[in-house]
Amino acid sequence: MSMIVRRLSRAATAGLVAAAALTAAAHSAEAADTLGSAAAGQGRYFGTAVAASHLGESDYAATLDREFSSVTPENEMKWDATEPSRGSFTFTSADRIVDHAQSQGMDVRGHTLVWHSQLPSWVSPLGAQDLRTAMNAHINGLMGHYKGEIHSWDVVNEAFQDGGSGARRSSPFQDKLGDGFIEEAFRTARAADPAAKLCYNDYNTDGVNAKSNAVYDMVKDFKSRGVPIDCVGFQSHFNSNSPVPSDYRHNLQRFADLGVDVQITELDIEGSGSAQAADYTKVVEACLAVSRCTGMTVWGVTDKYSWRSGGTPLLFDGDYNEKPAYGAVLSALGGSGGPGDPGDPGDPGDGASCTAMYTRTADWSSGYNGQVTITAGAEPISSWTATVTLPAQQSVSSLWNGTPTWSGNVMTVRPSWNGTLAAGASTSFGFTAAKNGSDAAPTVGTCTAS
Ligand code: 9MR
Questions:
Q1: Does residue 410 contact residue 383 with C-beta atoms inside 8 Å?
Q2: 163 DSSP 8-state letter
Q3: Per-residue pLDDT at 336
Q4: Is the CB of residue 235 below 6 angstroms from any atom belonging to ligand 1?
Q5: Do residues 380 and 422 touch, judged by C-beta distance below 8 A?
Q6: Which positions make up the signal peptide (predicted)?
Q7: How distant, in Å, are the alpha carbons of 22, 196, 239 from that of 102?
Q8: Does residue 266 have an active-site annotation?
Q9: HSE on the CB side for 54, CA within 13 Å?
Q10: 338-377 pLDDT, tens per residue?
Q11: Dihedral sign, CA of 298, 303, 309, 310?
Q12: What is the CA radius of gyration of the chain?
């Protein structure tokens, strides 16, 4: 019953949500130097996995809202989270993510409807007929609640076995319902929300191998028989044991040639520095080379909350600083930081990076002094560029230890005498601003280095 009430209220607020999305889209169009806006320039989305429990952390939310145009709930839409006991749905955490995404004009990927893992304990003991009923009811419950609000759903996740056989993975669904459970899940999903793209999602299918061949054969069969499938997700969890395959682009393309979209759904690459950046570049370039590769999602915002946090596989470090991999992705997407721009990892000075941190050092009723500290990353740098966006009313009367250029209320600052920094060393520039009625803090954006 509570599910039905909530479903109606989601639909009733759709008009408000659409208005908020427009505002957010207009806002992000101004920022040409974020992952989401750069990807949009290539006709793609750039998303991240999100955990509802971190949305209250201001740096987490600020990074998410600034950089990403799509979200995937990392755990909140899984079966154990949404239907912990049969027929009783809870959407509180998932709704929090969807509401947040909509308020920022972001798309939502639904993850995931039918998966052998994170299943509540009541599912496995069911007999075949009962399991079929429960599977379809679960799909209908989730997709009905979010009808019209999900860009793509991972309808079935990880149904094929690892290793060289290309066989189906043992699971309650496979073992009791046989191969046909996947087809049935997709047919139920299409009827539940005809507007959502329906994806099959898996890992270790990123290059051509026995497992990806088996998925390929299934998708080909589905297309030939009219089973509704729109997309294939390639999770793309990479590390030294499982590197970015050399035939990654070719593999994406052969699936696209079957008449489905392809999406990179859970990207992370363990490592650091320029080597990690180069691997990220390969992935982004592969997606951009395949016209039906409609978007990319990294599996988390910051290394500190990654499921593989020890491997530092993401684009922002634990303090939300942009890593070299961030610059590489932005550059590959054609954003600022591209070839020839300071800080581009493909240029000489590869690996150069910096961070910028703002503090207010003096304050009086009509004005304040701000200071931005620039710190070089793991390699020495010979120059840096930092952007500071001021609240619209404020104006800067003087600036020292830096050279500003202006575009509207965005101040881009380069060194005056203090461009050269040893690895890890810092310098700072300062400025005096008139408040003109606004006491808000300026926003410091990307720091790039060469
Ligand atoms: O990142 C998720 C982690 O927080 C969970 O503990 C884990 C539980 O299985 O699932 C992780 O996400 C997985 C995703 O849902 C499916 N593909 C593999 C992901 C990484 O394990």
A1: no
A2: S
A3: 78
A4: yes
A5: yes
A6: 1-31
A7: 10, 16, 33
A8: yes
A9: 20
A10: 444 444 444 445 678 888 999 999 999 999 999 999 998 8
A11: positive
A12: 24
